[in-house]
Amino acid sequence: MGLREQILNCNDFKWVDVVVPEWENVTIRIITMDGGQRSDFEARLYNDETKKLDSKRFMENLIIATARDPLTGASLFEPEDAILLSAKSSAVLSRLAEIAAKLNGVGDQADEAKKNS
Could you tell me if 28 and 67 are in contact, meaning their C-beta atoms sit under 8 angstroms apart? Predict the structure, then answer.
């Protein structure tokens, strides 16, 4: 097997299962996004008017992009759920978003979006 095949066949995805006591001890899997998922996430943050990333609903959109059912792997939330998620505890959202940010290397994006808002 050549280097190219080795890289393309490598499972380079990580995940973390997180118990959320505030949500009746439900377990949520936070995943590493693939390239397409990352592009979709970034597109939801892009403000067409300012041509910059917008921090509005950053946490919610990051959770939407990375939260999975640990048993099935299915996405837990849809993009339309951002407003509904924003009504949940900011402490929980912050905790989940921090884990997702670390797994996906989006800390710099979060800082940039906050500066541009």
Answer: yes
- How far apart (Å, rounded) are the C-alpha atoms in residues 27 and 68? 9
67: left (phi over 0), alpha (psi -120 to 50) or beta: beta
Query: pLDDT in tens for each of the 117 residues of the chain?
Result: 899 999 999 999 999 999 999 999 999 999 999 999 999 999 888 888 887 877 888 999 999 999 999 999 999 999 999 999 999 999 999 999 999 999 999 976 555 544 544
Strands 67-68 and 52-53: unpaired
Q: pTM of the prediction?
A: 0.84
Q: Is 18 helix (H, G, I), strand (E, B) or coil?
A: strand
3-class DSSP state of 26 = strand
Domains and CATH numbers, the chain: 13-116 (3.30.2220.20)
Which two structure tokens, joined as six digits, stand for 67?
């939260």
In angstroms, the CA 29 to CA 98 distance is 13
